[in-house]
Amino acid sequence: MTEPQPSLPEQEIASARRVLGRRNLVFVGLMGAGKSAIGRIVAQMLDIPFVDSDHEIERVSRMSIPELFEAYGEAEFRALEARVIKRLLRTGPRVLSTGGGAFMNDATRATVLASGLSVWLKADLEVLWTRVSKRDSRPLLKTANPKQTLASLLEQRYPVYAEADVTVQSRDDPKETIAAEAIAAIARLDGERKKAPSQ
Ligand SMILES: Nc1ncnc2c1ncn2[C@@H]1O[C@H](COP(=O)(O)OP(=O)(O)O)[C@@H](O)[C@H]1O
Ligand SMILES: O=C(O)C1=C[C@@H](OP(=O)(O)O)[C@@H](O)[C@H](O)C1
Ligand SMILES: [Mg+2]
């Protein structure tokens, strides 16, 4: 079944594509924010390729994320994640949805900020928890109190995610609405860029 797509003004899509140029549009944020789901829709709307760094890691390693954590530990996973994202950022444009920890890596964050356009999908703890508690595919949440773990990650990471170029509130509105808001936020940067010389 095809999902209804809100009609985005052509001009807005053109502006967003112009702002992006050959850069990657990089979604960052906590687990459950919707980076994978919204990123895919944004790529469709902008008619550019989509890649999810977790899927790319799973493809190259031929292992699932939980298997990678189990077999090699988080440090190895992070090293692979950084390498995969560095490679993906060399070419574009595309939408790149990252895993929630990727932007916490200093080198990855510096590369994303220098060569990509980053969007923080920001969500409240309750929204995130409702979503992530439906699946057990996230190794970091295999703790005695996963909601508390998520809350601690939120506290640690939100000041860092705030370095992203753009922030979009993720909530329980239709995914297409959130995707359209992300595109509108990027399109607005086109206006800012054009206004800049006369200021
Ligand atoms: N706006 C939304 N409304 C309802 N469900 C959503 C929304 N955004 C994401 N989801 C769902 O929440 C879950 C987590 O989304 P996902 O894209 O995997 O997040 P992330 O990649 O940030 O961890 C998925 O089941 C996804 O379909
Ligand atoms: O926040 C994190 O450190 C992680 C988030 C996950 O991706 P999502 O944010 O897409 O769930 C995945 O990369 C891994 O389980 C670690
Ligand atoms: Mg994801």
From TrEMBL:
Keywords: Amino-acid biosynthesis, Aromatic amino acid biosynthesis, ATP-binding, Cytoplasm, Kinase, Magnesium, Metal-binding, Nucleotide-binding, Transferase. Mg(2+) binds at residue 36. It is found in: Cytoplasm. Substrate binds at residues 54, 78, 100, 157. Its cofactor is Mg(2+). Binds 1 Mg(2+) ion per subunit. It holds the Pfam family SKI. One of its GO terms (biological process) is amino acid biosynthetic process. PROSITE patterns: SHIKIMATE_KINASE (PS01128). Its EC number is 2.7.1.71. GO terms for molecular function: ATP binding; magnesium ion binding; shikimate kinase activity. Pathway: Metabolic intermediate biosynthesis; chorismate biosynthesis; chorismate from D-erythrose 4-phosphate and phosphoenolpyruvate: step 5/7. It catalyses: shikimate + ATP = 3-phosphoshikimate + ADP + H(+). ATP binds at residues 32-37, 138. Belongs to the shikimate kinase family. This is Shikimate kinase. It comes from Hoeflea olei. The gene is aroK.
